[in-house]
Automatic annotation (TrEMBL):
InterPro entries: BLH_phosphatase-like (IPR005939), FAD/NAD-bd_sf (IPR036188), FAD/NAD-binding_dom (IPR023753), Prot-tyrosine_phosphatase-like (IPR029021), Sulphide_quinone_reductase (IPR015904). GO terms for molecular function: FAD binding; hydrolase activity; quinone binding; sulfide:quinone oxidoreductase activity. GO terms for biological process: sulfide oxidation, using sulfide:quinone oxidoreductase. Residues 2-109 form the Beta-lactamase hydrolase-like protein phosphatase-like domain. PANTHER family: SULFIDE:QUINONE OXIDOREDUCTASE, SULFIDE:QUINONE OXIDOREDUCTASE, MITOCHONDRIAL. The keyword Flavoprotein applies. This is Sulfide:quinone oxidoreductase. Residues 150-268 form the FAD/NAD(P)-binding domain. Keywords: FAD, Flavoprotein, Oxidoreductase, Quinone, Transit peptide. Its cofactor is FAD. It comes from Cribrihabitans marinus.
Length: 559
């Protein structure tokens, strides 16, 4: 038997035989549902044969036959009645298990998020993306065929989404563009490190979404449930359908707080904080100001994460504050990094190490945070250093700044757009999807091997806009993204190591070295971060003004 477990209480399989019943009984099943009509195949046992064997073994059995490829609303209702009246766990079968998995998906659509349904069936080997529209409609046959249609639909109104909308409008003002995002507030997330360091006020990093959507762009305030790329459609929660000629996918990534046991329960108290959340960054500064002695931990999970330098930025600004108020000598600073290096581009490491030494911070590589006990003030790390057996260590803390594990959003991971790791699968130069020619992606959600930063999105948006305009005109892609990313490492209040680099860790400075040497801490870089970058973000990047962001020309290989 080929059993496919979809949940703890529901399993599907291809056709079973009376001879399989004893094994199913031994496996703990209490009931069987047959979803295959009798007589569908010449070698198929009838349901009465299965039922007789099941009853003899003490199992209940129900017959809910469904014609292949024709799951009606009545079929779903009948399946629901059978499932709800049977003891669990239940095995449902048909010829391959697909009909049974489909019926379960439609039945669960009333109470379970679509992403959970798609993930559960996908893990069992059944792709339900083809019926996503019906799942979004609570399992009932949908009637919405997509009345709303736009030249370009953009999923996500973060830095990437609004920037590419503005860049497209500046190139082709007549385009009909819709941006889909359920959020009311847009955040300047690069500013949260400065909030946690007592430099910015949290409220200065937030603006209403409606004030930022470019003029002439339709804002659809809704969450995306699924994609139908073969039908050029996006399915919204509630089964509304939005059609497109071209699609841009940039919803950002998901902070997976739940991946660390006990973390959600203690965030914002017990000395547990994170600059990765708007409401917690002020708590970071509160803890820094209040800590006079003890141990401060700063964690970094496995890559990829947004702004890979942010975990150590929190360390440096905290260390600087303790240095200035003379508490540093009584504070044990430890950086718990799941990776094996301080920073991925080696040219910037010497300058950073000077500050590691200044703040007397201990570097603990290959330490991945797996659990926190807030009331006890202990953090548990899985240590997996090369050539050693993995083990766990538990460390006491008085303050801990956590960088959470990060993954693609659920609705992206289970979609046809995702690669094996769950990220949108694009060509790293053109940012065009590898399988769907009328789809592009940018920002944190796509799988190009670049640093996930706002500076990267600033460079990516014009690239995507240029290539979409070229596609509309019937031309091949013209623009290339070179992997540019920037990480202003706030090593102390008033000085920054400005890391700028592209694919492969190649340095890509924006300014001549005589003006600003990014490998050394400088006040000029601090001025750029504190005074220049916020207005550039709000007034240039989000308005389609591409200062220092003009796309590179795509180099076409000679035939």
């Amino acid at each position: 038997m080929d059993l496919k477990h979809i949940s703890e209480t529901f399993t599907v399989s291809p056709q079973v035989s009376p001879g399989d019943i004893a094994a199913l009984k031994a496996a703990g099943f209490k009931a069987i549902i047959c979803n295959r009509p009798d007589g569908e195949g010449a070698d198929q046992p009838t349901f009465p044969e299965i039922e007789t064997a099941a009853n003899a073994a003490g199992l209940e059995a129900r017959y809910v036959p469904v014609e292949a490829g024709k799951v009606s609303d009545d079929d779903v209702a009948a399946f629901g009645v059978a499932l709800n009246n049977l003891p669990r766990p239940v095995l449902a079968y048909c010829r391959t298990g697909t009909r049974s998995a489909t019926l379960w998906s439609f039945q669960e659509a009333k109470t379970r998020p679509m992403s959970d349904i798609l993930a559960a069936t996908q893990a069992a080997g059944y792709d339900m993306n083809g019926v996503a529209r019906r799942i979004a409609n609570g399992g009932k046959t949908p009637t919405d065929t997509g009345d709303a249609k736009y030249d370009v639909v953009i999923v996500g109104a973060g830095a990437g989404g609004i920037s590419v909308a503005a860049s497209l409008k500046s190139r082709k003002p007549g385009l009909s563009i819709a941006v889909i995002d359920p959020a009311d507030i847009h955040y300047y997330q690069p500013g949260w490190t400065m909030v946690g360091g007592g430099i910015f006020k949290a409220q200065d990093t937030a603006k209403t979404m409606g004030s930022l959507i470019p003029r002439g762009v339709k804002w659809i305030k809704a969450a995306v449930a699924a994609f139908e790329p073969n039908n050029n459609a996006v399915i919204l929660d509630g089964c509304r359908v939005v059609k497109y000629d071209r699609l841009v996918v940039c919803p950002g990534l998901k902070l997976d707080w739940r991946a660390v046991e006990g973390l959600e329960e203690t965030l914002g108290r017990n000395g547990v904080t994170s600059n990765y959340r708007y409401d917690l960054a002020p708590y970071t500064w509160q803890l820094v100001q209040g800590l006079k002695e003890g141990r401060a931990l700063f964690t970094q999970p496995p890559m990829p994460i947004k702004c890979a330098g942010a975990p150590q930025k929190a360390l440096y600004l905290s260390g600087d504050a303790w240095f200035r108020n003379r508490a540093l000598k009584d504070i044990d600073i430890q950086f718990m990094n799941a990776g094996g290096v301080l920073f991925g581009v080696k040219d910037y490491v010497p300058a950073l190490m000077e500050y590691v030494d200044k703040y007397d911070a201990m570097l603990n590589f290959f330490h991945n945070l797996v659990a926190i006990d807030g009331p006890a003030r202990t953090a548990t790390f899985r240590v997996a250093a090369p050539d050693t057996d993995p083990h766990e260590v538990t460390v006491d803390f008085d303050m801990i700044h956590v960088c959470p594990p990060q993954v693609a959003p659920d609705f992206i991971r289970v979609s046809p757009l995702a690669d094996a790791a769950g990220w949108v699968d694009v060509d790293q130069a053109t940012l065009r999807h590898k399988s769907y020619d009328n789809i592009w992606s940018l920002g944190d959600v796509m799988n190009a091997p670049n640093a996930k930063t706002a500076a990267a999105a600033r460079k990516q948006a014009p690239t995507v806009a240029d290539n979409i305009v070229a596609d509309i005109a019937g031309r091949a892609p013209t623009a290339a993204y070179d992997g540019y990313g920037s990480c202003p490492l706030t090593v102390e209040r008033g000085k920054i190591v400005l890391a700028e680099f592209g694919y492969g860790g190649v340095m890509k400075p924006s300014f001549p070295t005589v003006l600003l040497d990014g490998t050394k801490p400088s006040r000029a870089a601090w001025f750029l971060k504190e005074r220049m970058l916020p207005p550039i973000y709000w007034k240039a990047m989000l308005r389609g003004k591409e200062w220092l962001a003009k796309p590179e020309k795509l180099k076409v290989a000679a035939e």
